Amino acid sequence: MVQAPARTATDLAALAIALIEKAGCEYGDVRICTYHTQNLTARDRSLSNLSDKVSSGFAVRVLLDGAWGFAASPHKTPVEVERIVALAVEIAKASRLTQQKKVQLVPVDAYQDSYITPIEIDPFTIPITEKAELLLNINDRLLSYGNKGIKKAYSYLQFTREDKLFASTVGSVINQTIYRSLPGFGCTAIANGDAQTRNYERPPLNLGYENINPGDLLAQIDRVAREAIEKVNAEEAPSGIKTTLILKPTNLWLTIHESVGHPTELDRVYGYESNFAGTSFATTEKLNKLQYGAPWINFKCDRTQPGGRSTVAYDDEGVPAQTWYVVKDGILVDYLTDRETAYRLGRPSSNGCAYADSWSSTPMVRIPNLGLEPGKEGDSHTATLEEMIADTEEGILIDGTGSFSIDQQRRNFQFGGDAFWQVKKGKIVGMLKDVTYHSMTTDFWNSVDAIGSASELQKYGTNMCGKGEPMQIAQMTHACVPARIRNIQIGSAS
């Protein structure tokens, strides 16, 4: 008996597309994916977690008579492809029975292409022992400050590789390999009945092992330990006052994420998440009218950004990566779209924000790389971080992220941080602890009176943005510069 040759991913994708077309669907696509993730965590002087996982499977999505059908499987065989396509078609038929309005999509061109994240060192070629030794060395050096109050230490490394084949009835066949890496560490100081942490995290970026940069990590240890000790002995933050904030990119990126990124996801604006995560104040009648921020505030999306956490060549609908503004000269001018929401808005095309976090997940609108553009050189509202501090009579400088909350319309918010310094008469005079700031989204961004220049741009972002039911996790970069914001409410975390 002659064994049938194994089918390649390309063969399986072609079979799926042929079956979708035979079923009479107006559109369909298939994603065949493999995800390799590796996570290491060290706590104190031991390795507390080591995981090295591979997840692989495929998903079929069809649009039949204006209704979506979706099905997925980990078994990549011709027989299973036939079953999953048939299941997706049946689900679309069932969905149509209760659907009030037919789904329509903006057009997209066909692409036959491939893309690999540019990296210098494949992180999966570095021995586990080398990675573990780095983490344990970091923790050991942090704990050497034990006699001065450092009682806990932790460090971590995270790596992912996504291999994705996308094919559609439009005629696209796209292969992509995406690498991501993230290093970081922190410690806890205990004194006077209080405990305070201080963290250091290199930006999570689409890079290889070169992003780990052991030399940089080790060089930050002494500073982080000393600041943790200073923080636990610092004064409590004032409460119930308004003051000037100077926010480093390490803090500002999260405020951008929550108060600009999520409110401009068009599926959220249209109420697709209203039963779970809320809606958005930035509704479509405000487009090209809403004064989102000061006139020197520009928020730009860029899925092509080198090293960006959401940088790819195509989204999960085969739409090419691109750049666009959501806020231009302070005015709301656009949203984050997929092909369905772009049609509903009256746009001629999607700006490529459809993303699924797994072969078993359906694509949805996700935040891309979304950043605050630097101020123009020579502009009266452009200043370096040093200049902002020197020009501040009284305020607080904030570094790193902490706790946060924001209401279901993304209007009212509260953010903390990781480290805080009091500024008086143009100088940093000492640390504070337990600082939170409170504002409304448009009030906050309209109160920005200074932003940094291009020389101070930093690419921070998140490795764990959650959205959807069931929950999906995505990553994105929020490159930004330091900013100074006047007259912001300060409260205590306690």
Structural summary, described in words:
Helices cover 21% and strands 37% of the residues. The protein has ten helices and 25 strands. Strands 8, 9, 16, 17, 18, 19, 20, 21, 22 and 25 form a ten-stranded mixed beta sheet that branches. Strands 1, 2, 3, 4, 5, 6 and 7 form a seven-stranded mixed beta sheet that branches. Strands 12-11-10-15 form a four-stranded antiparallel beta sheet. Helix 1 (9-22) runs parallel beside helix 2 (78-98). The longest helix has 21 residues, at 78-98. It is globular.
Number of helices: 10
Q: What is the averaged pLDDT score?
A: 96
**What is the structural class?**
alpha+beta
Q: What fraction of the residues are assigned to beta strands by DSSP?
A: 35-45%
The Cα radius of gyration reads: 24 Å
The percentage helix is: 10-25%
Shape: globular
Gap from first CA to last CA: 74 Å
Question: How many strands in all?
Answer: 25
| Number of domain units | 2
Taking the sheet with the most strands, its summary is: 10 strands, mixed
Low-pLDDT stretches are none
